[in-house]
UniProtKB/TrEMBL annotation:
It comes from the Eukaryota. It catalyses: alpha-D-glucose 6-phosphate = beta-D-glucose 6-phosphate. Belongs to the glucose-6-phosphate 1-epimerase family. Keywords: Isomerase. One of its GO terms (biological process) is carbohydrate metabolic process. Its EC number is 5.1.3.15. InterPro entries: Aldose_1/G6P_1-epimerase, G6P_1-epimerase, Gal_mutarotase_sf_dom, GH-type_carb-bd. This is glucose-6-phosphate 1-epimerase. One of its GO terms (molecular function) is glucose-6-phosphate 1-epimerase activity. It is an enzyme of class 5 (isomerase). The lineage of its organism: Eukaryota, Viridiplantae, Chlorophyta, Chloropicophyceae, Chloropicales.
Length: 279
């Protein structure tokens, strides 16, 4: 059985999703432009997470949870296809799919689904978590999206002005964003909390503006490894940090608490404006 699914839109837009981690690795808009970064060194061999694309961090983001596995296990596990038609695919992972208790210490009973839909210039990602157990479950989650940029030193993130963030490069001390636009000239690893519903990623050299809208995903991580961390990352080319910028929407702090038998939904909508001239 193939390990990836292709979805397409009549406009010519198309995307590719691996069953391994329900991992979107490519999204091209109707203009044919690739919006997602994928490392040339990426390893497509479970249980290694694919470097680039959209790793789904669940049931925890980084070490924001009890598991030893950073970013949880959903991104390293094979999901199954639940629904598929044209411009949409729905993939599912349930706690019955594997022994996540023995392997990772996860005691929860859950169903996790992700629904990708594309239009000519938009990517809709809807996440649904159902607590199928008899106990409350707590989790953190994020869409760890590696956006493609032509030159990260010229790119910027807008919309986080005066938002508080945990600086992962400084003991996760709480700081406030003092710049209306976030630009990248060194390693950046920040967890912005309780962010506005919409932010923008501007890629002047690529002539693209990506508008990221989110529902029920209050937090945003901005990450670029820069030179040294890129060199230390085996599945990332030394210079590839220049072509990527992670803007990751999620629920990181506080964790989500889901009562038995209840459902949690969240959605991210990315709209890409291509061939725009940007000052
Ligand atoms: O989202 C930012 C981050 O938590 C960074 O600290 C860095 O570790 C990145 O994720 C990549 O993590 P990974 O486990 O995929 O190498």
């Amino acid at each position: 059985m193939d390990d990836k699914v292709h979805i397409a839109h009549p406009s010519g837009a198309r995307a590719c999703v691996y069953l391994h981690g329900a991992h979107l690795t490519s999204w091209k808009t109707a203009s044919g432009q690739e919006q997602i970064f994928l490392s040339k060194e990426a390893v497509f061999k479970p249980p290694k997470a694919i470097r680039g694309g959209v790793p789904i961090c669940f049931p925890q983001f980084s070490d924001f949870g009890p598991l030893e596995t950073s970013h949880g296990f959903a991104r390293n596990t094979r999901w199954s296809i639940f629904e598929r038609e044209g411009d949409t695919v729905v993939l599912k992972l349930t706690s019955e799919d594997d022994n996540f208790l023995e392997k990772f210490g996860c005691e929860d009973s859950f169903t996790l689904s992700v629904r990708y839909t594309i239009t000519d210039f938009q990517l809709f990602t809807r996440i649904t978590v159902t607590n199928t157990g008899g106990e409350e479950m707590a989790y953190t989650t994020a869409l760890h999206t590696y956006f493609r940029v032509e030159d990260v030193t010229k790119a910027r993130v807008e919309g986080l002005y005066r938002v508080g963030y945990l600086d992962s490069l400084d003991g996760r001390v709480m700081k406030t964003e003092e710049n209306p636009c976030i630009s990248i000239s060194e390693e950046v690893d920040r967890i912005y909390l309780s962010t506005p519903p919409t932010v923008r990623l501007v890629d002047p050299i690529g002539k693209r503006v990506l508008t990221i809208e989110k529902y029920n995903l209050p937090d945003i991580v901005v990450w670029n490894p820069w030179v040294d961390k890129a060199r230390r990352t085996g599945d990332l080319g030394d210079d590839e940090y220049k072509e990527m910028l992670c803007v990751e929407t999620g629920c990181i702090k506080p964790a989500i608490k889901l009562a038995p038998g209840t459902v949690w939904k969240a959605e991210q909508i990315v709209t890409s404006k291509n061939n725009v001239s940007i000052p």
